[in-house]
Amino acid sequence: MAAEVLANAGIPDEAARRAWSAMTAFQALGDGPRAEKAGVHAGRLILRDAGRDATGPLRDLLGQLAPGGEGHRRVAEMLAEAENRPDRDHDVLITDPEAPAWGKLAHALAVGAHLAVGNGTPWNSLADPDGPEENRELLARDWSVTDPDSWREQIDKLLDAENSDPAIQVVLDCRQPSPEAWSREIHRWCGERDISRETTEALDELSGQVRRYEERFRADGLLRPHGQVTSVYGYDFGRAVNMARWGLNAGFCDVETARDCALTAGYRAYRTYDSWEEFSAAYVLGRMLRFDDGEFGDWYLRSLEGHRILTTDPASPWRRMAWG
Q1: Which of 16, 36, 52, 55 is 20 to 30 A away from residue 7, measured at CA?
Q2: Residue 265: exposed, middle, or buried by beta-carbon count in 10 A (0-12, 13-18, 19+)?
Q3: DSSP state of 64
């Protein structure tokens, strides 16, 4: 029965089938506590692998557990979570029930939650639902990472906030109260360093792009009414957490190394920003300046959705854990 129910739902995971079969066997032996434990484990595996599509199998599983018991209660909670998930596999907050949602590591992993939400993966685990091959393919395609050495090089750049364009920080450091004064300061800074006219004009144009993004951020609630972004280092720190996850699952580092990198990214983010919201605005600006090119298109809309999920969902780590 377990294999048929799960296969019909598109869940081929052998571990879930074994857990379901173990529950049935313990029930036949009259061992209620162990049957409940196996049932809860099966539920976790089903929810992890199928997300919103887990509702059917979880209902069937719930029907196999005695009402009023702890196992029935916990599987009912999983079913409610599956039913409430958006009907999509991205831009959704997922918490791994088998991984800690509190504590030092969870706090650091929350710094990488923008990408986790965007990709529809659990924010609170260094494990990745995708297999090693998928992680290696992603790293090779998007990061030119093909081995432990190139992975180490990339994550060190992210941890040192050296992956994003350094011109962005030059522009932010030159900021002045008015656009005209900001432009003059950029020209003065460049003139003192004999920087070419073309580069100076590019930096001046970048300041206008930053200003337009910040205006939109304020209108959309990404920034407070008079808020500004002081650096985009958060974009590197947030990606460093995910680079640690990908490196571990690709086999390019061990658990201890991945954990240390995630903790370092979290610590440096806390030292740089004063709140989840301030960090989020910095992360999104860094992402927009790399990919959106002032279009306020899908890159922006999805990043805004991630920000709203993380700052408003009661289950979000940003709502449940204080900054720093």
Answers
A1: 36
A2: buried
A3: T
How many domains in the chain?
3
Token digits of residue 313? 């969902």
Q: In this structure, are 67 and 216 located in the same domain?
A: no
User: HSE (CB half, 13 Å, CA atoms) of 57?
Assistant: 32
Between the ranges 26-35, 48-57, 70-79, 174-183, where is the mean pLDDT highest? Answer: 174-183
Same domain for 236 and 177: no
Domain boundary (29, 51, 84) is at 84
Q: Are 105 and 273 in contact (CB under 8 A)?
A: no
Alpha carbons 175 and 317: distance in angstroms, whole number: 32
Compute the distance between CA of residue 52 and CA of residue 80 in angstroms, rounded to an integer.
10
Residue 131 CB neighbour total at 10 angstroms: 11
Residue 30 has a CB neighbour count (10 Å cut-off) of 7
d(CA 160, CA 153): 11
Overall average pLDDT of the 18-44 stretch = 90
The pLDDT, as a whole number, for residue 287 is 96
